[in-house]
Amino acid sequence: MKHSSASPHAATSSIAHQPLALVNARLIDPAKGTESAGGVLIVDGLIRDVGSAVTPADLPAHARIIDCEGDCVAPGLIDMRAFIGEPGAEHRETIATATMAAAAGGVTTILARPDTSPPVDEPAVVDFLLRRARDTGRVRVLPSAALTAGVNGAEIAEIGLLQLAGAAAFSDGARSIRNARVLRRVMQYARDFDALIIHHAEDPDLAEGVMNEGEFASRLGLAGTPREAEAIVLDRDIRLVRLTGARYHAALVTTELSLEIIAKAKADGLDVTCGTSINHLTLNENDIGDYRTFLKLAPPLRGENERRALVEGLASGIIDVIVSDHNPQDVETKRLPFAEAEDGAIGLETMLPAGLRLVHSGEIPLSRLIAAMTLRPAEILRLPQGRLKAGAPADLIRFDPNEPFVVDPAKLHSRCKNTPFDEARMEGRVKLTLVAGEVTYEDG
Amino acid sequence: MVYSSRKPQFPHRHLLGIEGLSPLDIEILLDLAEEAIQVSRQVEKKRATLRGRTLINLFFEASTRTQSSFELAGKRLGADVMNMSVATSSVKKGETLIDTAVTLNAMRPDIIVVRHAQAGAVHLLAKKVDCAVVNAGDGAHEHPTQALLDALTIRRNKGTIKGLTVAICGDILHSRVARSNILLLSALGARVRAVGPSTLLPPGIERMGVEVFRDMHRGLDGADIVMMLRLQRERMKSAFIPSAKEYFRFFGLDEAKLEHAKPDALVMHPGPMNRGVEIDSSVADGERSLIREQVEMGVAVRIAVLEALAQHLPNG
């Protein structure tokens, strides 16, 4: 395994590169929903040409050529929800370790959660993150900034100044805004700046349980959180979107009730999108089994019927985006009785192979899976990447969707090893990750 | 035979708002105010129009310039002026207000000038007294004499109001000045814009005939008059804006933003100003600022209003 030290930001600033060509590939185009044989020619960090015409016979003489041997080539993944430790929780994760894990998992753009310590509610913190990402990051890191000052849900954050500093979206991270008046004003204000609101819709009073409410929680003797905790807040939020005209993204929907609310909002023409986590798409409450704290998440893993509904929602397009919801927790906060353990699981490095489980089981087509991890987040965040077309940034991954492997937590790059997929058998390891045409990860 | 020089009379007993005034009514008051300017600039400033009359300034809300200019206006017209500053009680305002009105009415004043923190309070009081009532500001509803003095200031500097583009900027939600100005300037044929963040724009404001802008640059583009409003933080129960710093960056009037208005655009502010919040000192004190002239016009307009109402006083 080789780790290049090149940072994507350095790569985009240099001018004369050796052209790079990925040939003999199975091109996954999330915009067209197609898979086709061909190659990608990369010049100066951008895709110069893509398709069946890109063959070894027809390339610039000095180009470096990588033979993909029939593997898939797709846009690099864009993860709209990851906690990357900085600033304030460097014992859990740093930009260096998070972006290493991301590169190894094929994630080329991370939208970082703002509920850090201190939170990203001042332009100086946005600037700090951008500089840290430039100096230590291996993939692109986009700071999201707080919706409310101190992510306290009381006062509007400096959305205009934070946006000027480079915040890509606005969110209170894992916190839900309890006060409807505050959220209404936040939405009104954000709308003036055309800022994207990403909200964690979960009623903090109702969501006092530690897992999904129901028979399984009762058998385990654990307090449950009903799915209404999500639906009530989501429903309120959508009504406020209708009132204010805000651009709204529900960070994590995990139930069929929520999908109905989102589907109606979309049908009514509101500017509403939503995501779900790779965990909620591929695991259910029964996986908690014998009180496995690595599967303690917020919102909690739901029942199998809800998981199936989410997969259908993904297939039909009600769900726009799949996120890793990467949330590193160290041993001290996870090796505890279930109810006392922190929420969260890491996911940057496993989101692609975990998602491929849905493809292998025939639940969704590969191009739809890839679109939810590339094109759709790019469209929502208004980014040029996430596309397999000439002129787009050459953020690309190569993977063999059928190559089997076993997840070994010790080999994961995140600083924390709280993966819900430890020892899991998976297929589809990422072999090559390019950011702006530079190799940031290469396997083997 | 009718005297050809006879001027049309102001037809109302009270001045409760701009709402309900015709363009002609407004012109009558502005013309009277124009004459009053001359009187105020003479050494001998007294007239006898209100000699023997009693004017009560009833201010339930603190005021410097409005109260003192009504006091001056009353005195220049020869009235006996009494200032009453009434601390607002948080409970049962309605009852207290009516009781106060009945008490004052028994003292047989001729004109009461009222300011109150609640919209509609002045109208309520006007129903309970026999004298003329002038609204000196009721909640976020109306402040008619401010709109009149603004109009007079504009007319004197631009020659006319018809056809001008006036951008009213900032905290429109909490502003009675904005509402009265929108009504008055629209009535006289100006194109009025409301410029501010959505959180400080009253819902449905566009139905009052204004063009709404949430971006200062576009809102000022081509404006003849830029009217800044005070950010009324004391009326905000929780933040409508993130911070004074951000507000100034996006909605505070500085030289750079003023560049977007017409080259001969003039700047106004009803006062008191939050310097460095809604307006930069370089603009407030600059040569395009009409802010000091607005204060002078304030006295003239209040003289005009009292004169106009005096015509309807019994035995007048």
Nutshell version of this structure?
Chain A is an alpha/beta fold.
Description of the structure:
The complex is a heterodimer of chains A (444) and B (316). Chain A is α/β, with parallel strands linked by helices and 444 residues long. Chain A contains 14 helices and 20 strands. In chain A, strands 1, 2, 3, 4, 5, 16, 19 and 20 form an eight-stranded mixed beta sheet that branches. In chain A, strand 2 and strand 3 (46-51) form a beta hairpin. In chain A, helix 5 (180-192) crosses helix 7. Chain A is globular and about 65 Å long. The relative contact order of chain A is 0.17. Chain B has 316 residues and is of the alpha/beta class. Chain B is built from eleven helices and nine strands. In chain B, the strands form two sheets. Chain B has a five-stranded parallel beta sheet with strand order 7-6-5-8-9. Chain B has a four-stranded parallel beta sheet with strand order 2-1-3-4, sandwiched between helices. In chain B, helix 1 packs across helix 11, helix 3 (93-106) runs parallel beside helix 4 (121-128) and helix 5 packs across helix 6 (176-187). Chains A and B meet through helix 4 and helix 5 of A and helix 8 of B.
